[in-house]
Design brief:
Blueprint: E1 18-22, H1 29-46, E2 50-53, H2 72-86, E3 90-93, H3 97-104, E4 109-112, H4 120-127, E5 132-136, H5 146-154, E6 161-165, E7 168-169, E8 175-176, H6 181-186, E9 191-194, E10 200-201, E11 210-211, H7 216-226, E12 230-236, E13 250-251, H8 255-270
Helix pairs in contact: 1-2, 1-8, 3-4, 4-5, 7-8
């Protein structure tokens, strides 16, 4: 799998998994830089190819009073500053066709949310920017169905596409990762496991999504053992007070310990 087409990506010659990590949403410049600085230090130490993740806006909220962002351009400029400050690539999710060209001016990877991955115009708009397109597998889709989403990207002439599994709905308020789907999706495109969103508990009666962060280590280890190419982990130095998805984020203080274990497992898997 080639990562060299992503600007500023490092540590690509070590046959390690790559990492998309950062806060759920950009809440401000100081928090984004603080989180990025810590993750860059850890991934440089462990030789993990790293892409900083942060949503410039959140369109898929349960309640109308939920936090959606600090302003599109303001958040995108912060993502650019993270990239310039720490010399790392960045990824953000888009929700409408017009977001694609706008976000592509600031970030290196455009992510299609799981609940929008069948929206052909949105996927094509992202692909036509020439950026890497990260397709979140719909919670309602089989692994085999992701072949068609990948084809929508490659049919534009853009071969830079990933798939990210974030679980499949199991009843109304839980998600299950079927690891049998990993090799299937890897046959279509490099495949990432979204560890933290796979542990969400959506559709709670209070309108605030729950989660099982105590299982992040278990899920991540299973993903590496199953052969995923990359991991997606949302992390924050104060998850309880994060403005979005705090219930399923990893405390930043736990990230280095987890990644150290995962690098060791990866070495065993690829030998």
């Amino acid at each position: 799998m080639k990562l060299s087409n992503i600007p500023k990506i490092k540590h690509t010659d070590g046959n390690n998994f790559f990492l998309l990590a950062g806060p759920c949403a950009i809440e401000g410049e100081e928090m984004a830089l603080r989180i990025a600085e810590e993750i860059v230090s850890i991934t440089d130490k462990l030789k993990i190819p790293y892409v900083f993740k942060g949503s410039f806006k959140k369109a898929n909220r349960s309640r109308i009073d939920s936090f959606t962002g600090i302003g599109d351009e303001k958040a995108l400029k912060i993502l650019r500053k993270v990239s310039e400050t720490f010399d790392v690539p960045t990824v953000t999710d888009i929700h409408v066709n017009e977001d694609a060209a706008m976000a592509a001016e600031y970030v290196d990877v455009l992510q299609i949310p799981a609940f929008l991955v069948r929206q052909t115009d949105l996927v094509v708009a992202a692909a036509e920017t020439g950026k890497v397109v990260n397709l979140k597998k719909g919670q309602f889709m089989s692994p085999e169905a992701m072949k068609h989403a990948v084809t929508k990207v490659t049919d534009t002439g853009n071969e830079n596409v990933w798939i990210t599994d974030r679980g499949t709905m199991f009843g109304y308020q839980d998600l299950i990762v079927d690891f049998r789907g990993i090799p299937t999706m890897k046959s279509y495109a490099p495949t990432v496991l979204d560890v933290t969103h796979s542990l969400q508990q959506p559709n709670q009666s209070n309108g605030v999504t729950g989660g099982r962060p105590e299982l992040i280590g278990t899920m991540a280890k299973a993903g590496i053992a199953a052969g995923v190419d990359g991991l997606f982990i949302e992390t924050h130095f104060d998850p309880k007070n994060a403005k979005s998805d705090g219930a399923n984020m990893l405390d930043l203080s736990l990230l280095e310990g987890l990644l150290t274990k995962l690098v060791a497992i990866r070495k065993v898997v690829i030998e």
